[in-house]
Specification:
The complex is a heterodimer.
Chain A lengths: L4 H28 L6 H26 L4 H34 L7 H13 L7 E7 L10 H11 L11 E7 L12 H14 L6 H15 L7 H28 L2 H12 L5 H4 L1 E2 L6 H14 L2 H4 L6 H10 L7 E2 L7 H22 L4 H19 L13 H14 L1 H9 L7 H34 L3
Parallel strand pairs in A: 1-2, 3-4
Helix pairs in contact in A: 1-2, 1-3, 2-3, 6-8, 7-14, 8-11, 8-14, 9-13, 11-13, 15-16, 16-18, 17-18
Chain B lengths: L2 H30 L5 H14 L17 H10 L2 H16 L7 H23 L6 H10 L1
Helix pairs in contact in B: 1-2, 1-5, 2-4, 3-5, 4-5
Classes of the chains: A mainly alpha, B mainly alpha.
C-alpha cells in the first residue's frame, strides 16, 4: 500500500461520516420544522457542502494512490491537512446548524423578525438580504458578526464549487431562553446592524459613507506611532473596529426602532449584571463602556425628536439612561484597572464616534416621522393595552414602531395598573402574576405587529398588484 | 465554541484555507506542470505579504490574507522575518519565469512554507489564545 494511504483512508472515512450526518440532519430539519426567512437556504448550503466534501474525498484516495513513491509521504500529508481543514470548517458550521435548527417558528418571535427583515430591506443595498435566526445557548446578545465565516465559505468554494454560500445572508442570535419574549429581543436590531455594516464594508465598489468613516479611523490611528510594529497596529485596528461596530449597531437600531431599543439594552445589561458603576464606565477590547453607548443613544434620540416624544414616560430605565449619559468621558476607563490604551479610547470617543453617527444617518431612513407617528398614536395604543385589547382595530391603524415604543413605555410604567385592574389590588406585588401579564403584554404587542404587517401587505398588493 | 470564539476561529481557518489554496496551486505546478491558477494565487500572496507590513484600516478587508490581528500573529509565529523575505523573493522569481524549470525547487520550498503556515493556523483554530500580553503592553505604551 502507498505510504500513508491507510491513515488517509481512516481520516477520509471519519470526515465522510461527519459530512453525511450533517447533510441528513439538515434535510431532516427542513422536512420536520417550519422556519422563517433564510434558514432553509443555510441548510441547503450545508447539504451541498457536505455532498461536495464526500465527492472530494473519493478524489483524494485516488490521487494518493498515484503519487510517485519518492514524494508520496509528503503529498499524502498535504491531502490529510486539506481534509483536516475541511473538517474544521464543518466544525464551524456544526456550531451554527444546531442553533439554526432550534430556531423554528414556534421558538422565536416571528412577527418581530419579519418586521426587522422588512425594515432591513428598506436600507439601500440590502433589498435582497436574508436572515438566519440562531437560538444560542449563551445568555447574551450583541455578539460579534460572522464576517469571517462568510470569508471562509468563499475560500472553501474554490475547492468545492457546488458549495455556494447564499449571497447577503446574515445571522442573528437570540438566547434560547428568550426566544419567545419580545422586549429584550429588540436587541436583534443591533445584530442586524452588524450584518448591514459587514455588507457595506465588503462591497466590491466601496460605499462612500463607509470610506469616509474608514478615513477618519485611519487618521485617528495615524496619531500614534504604530507603523513600526504591524502586530500592534493590527491590534489597535481590531479594538477600534470592535468599538466602532458596537456604536454603529446601537445607533442603527435606534434609528429603526426608536427608544424602545435603549430600554431593551438597559434590560439586557441589567440582566447580565453589567450596570454597576465600575462596569458602566469601562471599555473592554470588544465593547465601549455602557455609559459611552448610552450617551450616544440620548444624543441621537434628542436630535431625532424621540426624546421629546417620550417626555410623558418617566420610568427608572429612562432616568438611568440620562444619568449614564451625563457621566463625563474623562471618567471612562479601559479595563477595570484602567491599564488599557486610554489615548486610543480618547481618539475613538472624540473623533471616530461623530463619524459613526454621520454614517448611521446616511444609511438609515429619517427617524423624525416615526417619532411624530408615535406621538399621534401612543394614547390610542395605550388605551387598548390598558383594557387588554390588541391595538389594531383603531380608526388610524398604528405603525409597528409606534406599537413597539408605546408597548414598551406601557410595560415600564403601567404594568402594575393592568395587574390590579384584572387581578385585584392584592396581586400588585405578586411576582408570578406580574411575569404572566408581561407575557400577555408581549403577546398582544406581537399580534398587533403581525396584524400591521398583514395590513401593509394587503395595501401594497392593492396598490402595486400581486407579485 | 462561543460566538466570539467562532469569529476568532473562523479567522484562523480563513488563513488555513488561504495557505491550502497556495499549496494546492503550487502542487499542481510542480507535479503536473499546470499553471492556470498560479499567477493569480501568487500575486494575491505577494500582495498579502506586502500588505502585512503596511496595514491600514481601509485596506483591512480587501487584503487576501493577514488582514486581521489573529492572522498576522499566526504569520509572525511561524515565519521568521528572513523567511518572509525569502518567500517574497521566491514568489517573484516564479512569477517572472513560470516556464523555467529552475524555479520548481523554489515552488517546492514555498509548498513547505505554506504547509507550515497552514499547520499553525489549524493549531490556532484548535487552541485560540487571547491577545498577546506583550502586544497589548506595547499598544498601551504607544496609544
Amino acid at each position: 500500500m502507498q505510504a500513508g494511504l491507510a491513515a488517509l483512508l481512516h481520516d477520509a472515512a471519519v470526515l465522510h461520516r461527519f459530512a453525511d450526518f450533517l447533510e441528513e440532519y439538515c434535510k431532516e430539519q427542513e422536512r420536520s420544522q417550519r422556519y422563517i426567512d433564510a434558514s432553509g437556504d443555510f441548510f441547503r448550503y450545508a447539504e451541498n457542502l457536505a455532498r461536495g466534501i464526500k465527492v472530494k474525498l473519493r478524489s483524494y484516495v485516488e490521487r494518493a494512490s498515484r503519487f510517485p513513491p519518492e514524494i508520496a509521504a509528503a503529498r499524502v500529508a498535504t491531502l490529510r491537512r486539506e481534509m483536516l481543514t475541511f473538517k474544521d470548517y464543518l466544525r464551524l458550521l456544526h456550531t451554527l446548524i444546531k442553533p439554526a435548527a432550534d430556531a423554528h417558528t414556534l421558538s422565536i418571535p416571528a412577527p418581530l423578525i419579519n418586521l426587522a427583515s422588512d425594515q432591513l430591506h428598506q436600507i439601500e443595498g440590502m433589498k435582497d438580504s436574508r436572515i438566519v435566526v440562531l437560538l444560542t445557548p449563551q445568555l447574551m446578545y450583541f455578539q460579534r458578526p460572522h464576517t469571517y465565516v462568510k470569508e471562509d465559505a468563499g475560500r472553501v468554494e474554490k475547492f468545492i464549487s457546488q458549495a455556494k454560500f447564499p449571497t447577503k445572508l446574515g445571522f442573528i442570535e437570540l438566547p434560547y431562553s428568550q426566544g419567545t419574549s419580545f422586549f429584550t429581543n429588540l436587541a436583534i436590531y443591533h445584530e442586524i446592524g452588524h450584518f448591514v455594516y459587514e455588507e457595506l464594508s465588503t462591497l466590491r465598489r466601496k460605499n462612500p459613507h463607509i470610506a469616509a468613516l474608514e478615513s477618519v479611523k485611519d487618521k485617528s490611528l495615524a496619531k500614534f506611532p504604530l507603523q513600526k510594529d504591524p502586530q500592534v497596529r493590527k491590534l489597535a485596528e481590531k479594538i477600534v473596529e470592535s468599538w466602532t461596530q458596537e456604536i454603529f449597531c446601537d445607533l442603527f437600531a435606534l434609528r429603526l426602532v426608536g427608544p424602545a431599543f435603549s430600554f431593551a439594552l438597559v434590560e439586557i445589561l441589567s440582566m447580565l449584571g453589567s450596570l454597576s458603576r465600575q462596569a458602566t464606565v469601562t471599555f473592554d477590547e470588544e465593547h465601549p463602556a455602557p455609559a459611552c453607548r448610552f450617551a450616544e443613544h440620548v444624543k441621537l434620540l434628542r436630535k431625532d425628536s424621540w426624546w421629546d416624544a417620550i417626555a410623558h414616560c418617566e420610568p427608572e430605565q429612562k432616568k438611568l439612561l440620562e444619568k449614564l449619559a451625563e457621566i463625563p468621558s474623562t471618567d471612562y476607563r479601559v479595563y477595570s484597572d484602567d491599564s488599557g490604551p486610554k489615548r486610543l479610547m480618547g481618539a475613538f470617543v472624540h473623533s471616530i464616534v461623530p463619524a459613526i453617527e454621520k454614517l448611521v444617518r446616511q444609511v438609515t431612513p429619517r427617524a423624525a416621522p416615526a417619532a411624530k407617528r408615535f406621538v399621534d398614536t401612543r394614547k390610542t395604543i395605550k388605551d387598548c393595552l390598558s383594557v387588554g385589547v390588541v391595538p389594531h382595530n383603531t380608526s388610524t391603524p398604528p405603525d409597528p414602531v409606534s406599537i413597539i415604543n408605546s408597548a414598551f413605555c406601557f410595560y415600564l410604567t403601567a404594568l402594575p395598573d393592568i395587574v390590579t385592574t384584572f387581578e385585584g389590588v392584592a396581586a400588585e406585588n405578586d411576582v408570578e402574576i406580574r411575569s404572566r401579564w408581561t407575557k400577555k403584554l408581549e403577546d398582544w404587542t406581537m399580534k398587533a405587529i403581525e396584524d400591521s404587517q398583514v395590513r401593509s401587505q394587503f395595501e401594497r398588493t392593492q396598490r402595486d398588484g400581486p407579485f | 465554541m462561543t460566538p466570539i470564539d467562532l469569529q476568532d476561529r473562523a479567522q484562523y481557518l480563513s488563513l488555513a484555507l488561504f495557505a491550502q489554496e497556495m499549496v494546492s496551486v503550487l502542487m499542481e505546478y510542480v507535479d503536473e506542470n499546470e499553471s492556470r491558477k498560479l499567477k493569480t494565487a501568487l500575486r494575491d500572496a505577494l500582495n498579502s505579504l506586502k500588505g502585512a507590513e503596511r496595514a491600514s484600516v481601509s485596506s483591512q478587508r480587501r487584503a487576501a490574507a493577514f488582514a486581521s490581528y489573529e492572522q498576522l500573529r499566526t504569520l509572525e509565529e511561524v515565519w521568521k522575518p528572513e523567511e518572509r523575505a525569502k518567500a517574497k523573493q521566491m514568489i517573484q522569481a516564479i512569477l517572472r519565469e513560470p516556464e523555467n524549470p529552475k524555479v520548481k525547487p523554489a515552488a517546492n520550498d514555498l509548498i513547505n512554507l505554506f504547509s507550515k503556515l497552514q499547520d499553525q493556523a489549524l493549531w490556532n483554530f484548535e487552541q485560540p489564545r487571547p491577545v498577546s500580553p506583550g502586544a497589548m503592553q506595547r499598544l498601551c505604551k504607544l496609544a
